[in-house]
Amino acid sequence: MARQGLRVSGRDLDSPVVTEQPDPDQRLREVERAILDRAPEHDLVPALDRIRELLDLLGSPQVAAPVIHVAGTNGKTSTARMIEALLREFGLRTGRFTSPHLHSVRERISFDGAPIDPERFVATYDDVAPYLDLVDARHDVRLSFFEVLTAMGYAAFADAPVDVAVVEIGMGGSWDATNVADARVAVVTPIAIDHVRFLGSSLEEIAAEKAGIIKPDSYGVVAQQPLAAAEVLMRRSVEVGAIVAREGLEFGVLARPLAVGGQVLTLRGLAGEYDEVFLPLLGAHQAHNAANALAAVEAFLGGAHAERGRLDIDLVRAAFAGVTSPGRLEVVRRSPTVVLDAAHNPAGAAATAEAVQESFGFTRLVGVFAAMADKDVRGMLAALEPVLAELVVTQSGSGRAMPADELGAVAVEIFGPDRVEVTPRLDDAIDSAVTLAEEEGDLGGAGVLVTGSIVTVAEARTLLGKVGA
Description:
Distance between the termini: 65 Å
Oligomer: single chain
CATH class of the largest domain: Alpha Beta
Strand order of the largest sheet: 6-5-4-7-3-8-9-10
Structural class: alpha/beta
Number of helices: 15
Strand content: 15-25%
Helix content: 25-40%
Radius of gyration: 24 Å
CATH architecture of the largest domain: 3-Layer(aba) Sandwich
Shape: globular
Largest sheet: 8 strands, mixed
CATH topology of the largest domain: UDP-N-acetylmuramoyl-L-alanine:D-glutamate ligase
């Protein structure tokens, strides 16, 4: 007679135990929520003690791979993406940490040009999570959203491992959470007035904060700067004994004729000239970003004698030809042409206005503008006014967004009432701008520019069917 298995709560004990597997998507959402529930990056308490303590508990992952650190006011993300593209083309495994993100927080931590996959993102958080409460309990201020992501980035890069980490600062430099690493190469992109609450209201104050990423015996790559900022950066380099290369002196852009879908660059690097370099990005500012990226990689690969080793021109060309920078003068629609640009301060808006004039033959350009309340919206609108025939003022979904009515009042002062329309919903604002552009007719050269903040551009990309970054 066959043996009857024992039964407990209706289950035969001879039967295999089936455990319910957690839903990976749900777990990812839980992790993202746990991180986002912390203090946001725009409301930080400047200090390095919390992040240093956390990384000490994690075994100091920030020292596991050499770092190329990128600071500055504008152009950081594009420059970091170009640096990474060059390094990958030369056979190195790369990690890249950038901010903010467009669509997914996972974009901030990338391997070999692609965002960290969901499983690794969750696993990295699970490795870090046991130490978060421990550090939080020792300080009056909890670890912030950005500090947790920074620790996750360094931990993920160490675990991979990567050959080199390209790390963009979040804000400032000296006390930015990423500055727990001593970079082998420190890149400072153009400095302008921004984040005055934390960085100060003068170029000298802002430059002093950003100069903090230049460390003893490192290699500093300095973009063209206002004189006041340049003096601060050079003083810091001398004080810490860093080698420094300056755009316009040791390296720079020699030529940049326009081409279909971008521009063809002739760059003077630290070790010679590189010609016929196609860059599929628009604007003089992107050409300068490319020059800084090239010099940074020459410095990284060549060290103190970077001027002696010219990089393989074919590899340089291949790297730059594959560069992307979503949300930076990105064309997302034709007939009429819709361009998205994440400019969020007056200097960035001025670069955008110049690039649009140079790169597109618009006979009429309609703007869609939404910005954060803590930004210099008057300065941004003044920079954009000469190139916009009309402006549709709107509002992003961010809690920091300036209300559309308030923004409209500022816009009317600059554009006049006949050129400003206030449409609170972004989707309606884009539709309205497209309709205004279409009034030019099929043979016209009208377009739409959506700008004002990274959040605005991210939401517009989603509305217009663009996904991924």
